[in-house]
Amino acid sequence: MTAFDAGPFSRRAWLLSDRPASRLQARLGRAYVAWRRFSANRLALVGMLIIIALLVVAAFADVLAPYSPTIGDLKNARLLAPGAAHWFGTDDLGRDIYSRIVYGSRWTLYVVILVAIIAAPIGLLVGTIAGYAGGWTDTILMRITDIFLAFPKLVLALAFVAALGPGIENAVLAIAITSWPPYARIARAETLTVRNSDYIKAVQLMGASPFRIVLRHIMPLCISSLIIRVTLDMAGIILTAAGLGFLGLGAQPPLPEWGAMIASGRRFILDQWWVAAAPGAAILIVSLGFNLLGDGLRDALDPRSGDQ
Amino acid sequence: MTACIAVEGLEVVFDRFRALKGVSLEVREGESYGLVGESGSGKSTLLRAITGLAPVSSGTITVNGKRLGKTRDKALYREVQMVFQDPYGSLHPRQTVDRLLQEPLAIHGMADGEKRIERALDEVGLGKGFRFRYAHQLSGGQRQRVAIARALILEPSVLLLDEPTSALDASVQAEVLNLLEEVRRRRKLTFLMVSHDLAIITHMCERLMVMQNGEAVETLTASQLIGHRVSADYTRNLLRASEGFVRV
Amino acid sequence: MSDTLLEVDDLRVTFPTRTGLVQAVRGVSFSLGRERLGIVGESGSGKSQTGRAIMGLTPPQAEVSAKKLAFDGMDLLSISPRERRALRGNRIAMILQDPKYSLDPVMTIGRQIVETLRTHEKVSRAEARERALAMLQAVQIRDPARVFDLYPHEVSGGMGQRAMIAMMLVTGPELMIADEPTSALDVTVQLDVLNILDKLVAERGMGLIFISHDLRLVSSFCDRVVVMYAGKVVEQIKASELRDAQHPYTRGLLNCMPRIGFERHPLPVLDRKPEWAA
User: Is A30 an interface residue toward B (CB < 8 Å)?
Assistant: First the structure.
């Protein structure tokens, strides 16, 4: 079949077909349905645009930033107000704030992505194993989770950074360590709802090992709620990272990390408000972007919203 | 005639509730055996106990001469497979038919999967066109056919059927029952079939056991039941009920 | 005919879906006196949506239209939602398949019956209680006073369905719509419940619409049977004459079920013709 050649309408029909003829078509069809649900939500598209913009800015920071993010012009350009030469003004060391924000997007992404790839798999693994195994395994794993959940996230992160020493890598580690427990909870709850279903029993009756069942049959069902939750948490991660930076425990000078930038702008917030306001606005917009994206993903991926 | 499945004094207890209270039965090789009863009679629990899905607290189960231990090993599932009642719940919602059928082959390391999958789909009357569909793109009857294909792909000698048609429309039920009879004939399978419907059991099975509250009420041949030669009152009640409503 | 309780002419129920409008019910017409009418069909035939449309329980996104949908001379489609609500549960009642989902889990059975009664009639608490107990007795619950104080999860499926029938009948409705009232019950309990329903309908002179997938059960219970396929009525026939049904779908539906004492291998299957749905 050469359905792809026959114009846009039949390409849509090909994707939405009830009778996919190949693995690829089945997969693409599924993705297309999810995309349609996602794109029906305007705000989600806005969120996605913000995140794409963030990615683009981070990728082309060298091109987009007119000045160095770390070397300022102390003699001529201290604390200049926003203007044509310096769009967002300059800070107390004469550095261009716009350039620092552009480079800072890299650090924001660095934190967010690292935390997500460390915390989400840990949570997924702990949650699905606890939920599927039940009994003692479940009790032990979930009590450990509870211990982590008992402390406020920022306080726990502070304690870890204090122990590990300040720095952005340690901040990432500390945030990751403190943010997996909710994911474990979600994955466990999701696992409990599916572990007694007939389709899991059918796989048991194939003689599949528990490891295989968890990995190949249960995890794929937990992943969508986890992606949604992680995306919605991204804003919180950015804020925590900024909070640690603000307290001097995250990124160290002269790194252009947004939280640390606000911290250094705090001293002249009344007279030179732009020094703190510009990174603040950047954090606000990116957090909002992740939240909107997460909401949209919930519509698109939520298994409970039905496959019909 | 050898016993294909022999169950002796089987007890199943869930949280102090005795779902099965010492049930014994013997299914001969190549036979189709029915379990009839109402909800709570323990008929499905019996099937689940054989497959290891329900905990056996006492009694023995022997399949093809081998006594089953506490845990079921992989080899058993190449001899015994099961078809579930609810076709909407027994297929993984995120897997295509292809993936569903591949899984058992992968677990048991069986070769030439492509050919086997195509043959299995042909055998249940679906054909290649259904291979890459997801469960939600299938009707109830088609789903049950996929479930049957999945059970048959490991080439078992025994098929456990847990109300395989009770969730289907009458006309689809007839198609699925015909399909089951056909694969049984072709593959010389042994059936152990659970149903609440006497008519289906007499249609499908040569012998049957009537169950109530976790106990066997009586064992009959299908022709005894058809001739109303039954001894227990409970069976008589079931027979009367199966004839439909009679205004008194 | 003055005796006509319900008149349905060209009833249509349309659902919007992602791929366009879908008609679940496509021009159904029948009339009902004080009799037992069965509506039979397979899943997707529109039988339940027909019942719901009469009851006014169609989901809000769907659209109901009809040339005529009249209950006791009253046009159901033009009266206000308020008048419709007053009818519902009072003069028209409905029993659903599973009492587990249609009884309120946090209210005792007795209180639910009393509440139903007091919503529609001005009666004292004591009198309502009396009538509720009498109603529970009428559905052959042996110990009404005990069941009165039980919660729905504390009773069996059969008992729950009887309680549901009691609740629906306590206001003395003239029309009862029963949507698969016994499908979730065991066969022996099923017949008890049907017997109770049958007696009450006969005693009170109600009209009954019995919706079911089970053609044989319906034909043994009802006076007349409407057979639906793909949203349309394919045949209306007296239950006693079902054996002489004309439409191949009706005949196929009757034939394809296994029967004790009639050995047919393989079972005859339905050969669905596209023109049935046309």
Answer: yes
